[in-house]
Design goal:
The protein is α+β, with helices and mostly antiparallel strands. The chain is built from 10 helices and 5 strands; from the N terminus they run αααβαβααβααβαβα. Helix 4 runs antiparallel to helix 8 and helix 5 runs antiparallel to helix 6. The protein is globular, with a radius of gyration of 19 Å.
Amino acid sequence: MALLDKIGHVLTSDITKDFRFKKRNISFDENLTFIDQLKKRRNVSDLGNKIRFSQTYLTELIQESVRSCPSAYHSQSTRVVILYGNSHKNFWDIVREMQRKIVPAHIFEGIELKMDQCVKAYGTVLFYEDQKTIQYLQKKRPFDAKEFPIWSEQTSGMAQFAVWTALADSDIGASLQHYNPIIDEEIAKSFAIDENWKLRAQLVFGSIEQEIGEKPHIDYAQQFKVFY
C-alpha cells in the first residue's frame, strides 16, 4: 500500500501472491502525502459489506500494519483477532445480547440500532494485549514495572491507529468501539481466546455508506506550544 511504503515499511517477499498482485494493480493517488493519508482516517458509523478486496489481502494488510508498529522494548504485546462472515456476525450478536442484559429497555432500542449497523459491516478487528508478555517484562525490568501497563496501552493505541489508517488508505471505512470488559468473558469462550489476552478495542470496518463531512478542530494555539 502507498501508506505503508511512505512510512518506510515496504512489504517483503513472504507476502502472498494475492497481496502483491492487488498492491501492484490497484490504482492509488501517488500524490497524496502521509498527512493526507492520516486525514482519510475517519470514524464512519454507516458501513456496508461491499468490499472489493479479498479476505487474504485484508488479513495481510491488517497483519503488516500491526507488525510495523513500535512497542516498548519491542515487546510485541499486541494480539489481534480478525472476524469475517459468520464470525463477524456472531461477535456482534453476542455484544447485542450482553448489552440487552445490562441496559434499560428504553435505552436498548438505540443500542440495538447501532448493533444492526455493526452487523451490516464487512468485518471486525479485535485488539488484545498479552498480559503474560507484560508480566514477563515487569519481572525482567522491575524498576519500570509500573510503567509497562501504560506502555501496553500506548502500543495497542498505535496498532489500532495503524490498522484504521491502512484501511482508510484502501477507501475502507471503520469505527472504533469499546464494549470491553463486559463482553470479554463471553467472547473468550466463543472464540477460544487465550486467558492472558486482554481485550482493548473493537474496530468494525466495511464499505463507506455515508457522506463524510469536515472534522472540526480546536484552535492551534490551544493545542500546541512551539519554542525557538
